Target: Molybdopterin dinucleotide-binding domain-containing protein
Amino acid sequence: MPDRVVWLPLNSAGQGVASDTGALPGALVRIGAATLAAEAPKEVQA
Model:
């Protein structure tokens, strides 16, 4: 695999990367440290 490429299964037992992240195959994503629930950005309905 090329540098800076991460492979993840789309559907693993109990979790699915596509459904959890909303990212589709080939999408650019950012990977970082987890945040506490109190620090996580809030989702706003428009």
